[in-house]
Amino acid sequence: MEQQSNFRLGVFILCALLLGAALLIGIGSGRWLQPKITLETYFNESVRGLDIGSKVRYRGVAIGEVSAITFTYTRYESDLPSTQRRQYVLVEAQLDTDILGKSNNNATEQADLDREIAKGMRVKLSPQGLTGTSYLEIDYESPKDNQPLPVNWTPEHLYIPSANSTVNQLLGSAQDLMAKFQRVDVDKTIALLNQTLTTMNSKLEDLPVKSIGRETEQLLHSVNKMPLGQIASESAALIQEVRESNLALKTLLEQPSLQHASSDFASAAFSAKQLLADPALASAVHRLDQITLRLDHLTAQRESDIQQIIDNLSSTSSNLKMLSEKANQKPSSLLFSDPPKPYTPPKP
User: Fold this and answer.
1) Does one domain contain both 189 and 165?
2) Of 25, 31, 308, 345, which one's alpha carbon is 20 to 30 angstroms from that of 124?
3) Residues 6 or more apart from 118 whose CB is under 8 A from it?
4) For residue 15, is it within any domain?
5) Closest-CA residue to 48 (of 172, 167, 176)
């Protein structure tokens, strides 16, 4: 009886274990049987901190894990001499989620992926906290600053170019900074700094500090004596006058007559322009020039006659002057040829 009870207990435990295993297989079969996508990328840098099983994230979301880490020449350039091989690190990853879209073959998926690569999709090695481990981050970077590595083979799987990792960028910047510091002549810089400080000290010692202090004190005393209140009130009055002047000027400029003055001036200028552009004005000026030329020609031809007339007029004027003088002296001579005899009174 006791043996039969133990047998039943053993059968029950065995059935429970089998049922639990079946449940575990049933729950995980969906994830285990899900088709995966193989992705590969190449790094021309150290991938320290990245191991098989490291996470692959797309914009922070875990979508797979690293499945292989090797060198590209072991797969694509094994037949080339070692001097011609590229020292790229080949990293393969198995993606659980089909983020690239579903297609019938890898060629179609790669064509779709190339369009995203042209937009800047890259794989970057990112550090995970302060533990020293790293993971792969798929995100969009600047295509101009992250050009794909040159390759002379066709990838076996889907391919996304890599971008410079954040750690290497920081290390590169630090190395550039250290190189610049190394190029700086520290001893010479310190010597120049000491010389500058010595020169400044000598110049400061040569300054008449006491005299400057006395003059500054006198200046402050003079400023204290200034009627600042009066100056402030006068400044306020001046500002008020300026405001009133601006207001008067604004009132003057807003008058309708001044507003129409610009249009009247423009109209007058347009009328003057039309008058100057009128062909009749040019014709009148041309005829006036012709008349002036004719007058000059006529004057040149009659110059001798005019001179003779002027001489005759001068002679006639002289004769008239003599006649006038004679008439004043002897008026009777104008009527008689001889002057009358003197009057003799009769004798008694």
Assistant:
1) no
2) 31
3) 143
4) no
5) 167
Measured distance CA(140)–CA(259) in Å, rounded: 62
Q: List pLDDT tens digits, range 184-195.
A: 777 788 888 888
pTM over 0.90: no
Together in a domain, 38 and 168? yes
Q: Residues in the chain, how many? A: 348
Domain count, the chain: 2
CB 98 within 8 A of CB 37: yes
Domain, as residue range, for 216: 185-241
The 10 Å CB-count burial string (b at 16+, else e) for 9-48 is eeeeeeeeeeeeeeeeeeeeeeeeeeeebebbbbbeeebe
Residues 118 and 112 sit within 8 Å (Cβ to Cβ): no
Query: Above 90 in pLDDT, residue 314?
Result: no
- How do residues 232-245 score in pLDDT, each as one tens digit? 888 888 888 888 88
Q: Kindly state the DSSP code that residue 51 receives in the 8-state scheme.
A: -
